[in-house]
């Protein structure tokens, strides 16, 4: 599957309520990092989804640049952790049943200790 690439003009058309000033600001503060080309910034599908989220957050909650950067950083970390967890679960699924049972017991024991 080929990923679509968007020019700045196409990105603005793809994200309702996104203004050119906002797009420039989001790039400047680093919450969006488009690929740079000879023709200017190029936005991937994930950038368009991220821009839509940023516009909703910034407008809906009147977030300043610092708060927006913090929230996006936390969301990026959460997304990374979800990927790590998915990889761990896939690896565990390939283990023999006794190993899976042992890991399950150990995880339950550790979680009880952590809750204390």
In short:
By secondary structure, the chain is mainly alpha-helical.
Strand order of the largest sheet: 1-3-2
Which CATH class is shown? Mainly Alpha
Instruction: Note the total helix count.
Output: 5
Spatial extent as radius of gyration: 20 Å
CATH topology heading: Multidrug-efflux Transporter Regulator, Chain: A, Domain 2
CATH architectural name: Orthogonal Bundle
The description of the largest β-sheet is: 3 strands, antiparallel
Order of helices and strands: EHHEEHHH
Relative strand content: 5-15%
What is the number of strand segments? 3
Distance from N terminus to C terminus (CA atoms, Å) equals: 48 Å
> What is the count of structural domains?
1
Secondary structural class: mainly alpha
The percentage helix is: over 70%
- Inertia-based shape: elongated
The mean pLDDT is 94
Q: Stretches where pLDDT falls below 50 for ≥5 residues?
A: none
């Amino acid at each position: 599957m080929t990923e679509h690439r968007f020019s700045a003009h196409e990105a603005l058309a793809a994200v309702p309520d996104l203004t050119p000033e906002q797009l420039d600001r989001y790039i400047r503060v680093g919450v969006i990092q488009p690929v740079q080309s000879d023709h200017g910034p190029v936005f991937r599908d994930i950038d368009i989804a991220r821009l839509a989220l940023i516009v909703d957050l910034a407008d809906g909650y009147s977030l300043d640049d610092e708060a927006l950067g913090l929230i996006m950083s936390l969301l990026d970390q959460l997304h990374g952790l979800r990927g790590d967890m998915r990889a761990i679960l896939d690896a565990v699924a390939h283990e023999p049943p006794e190993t899976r049972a042992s890991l399950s017991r150990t995880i339950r024991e550790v979680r009880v200790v952590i809750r204390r």
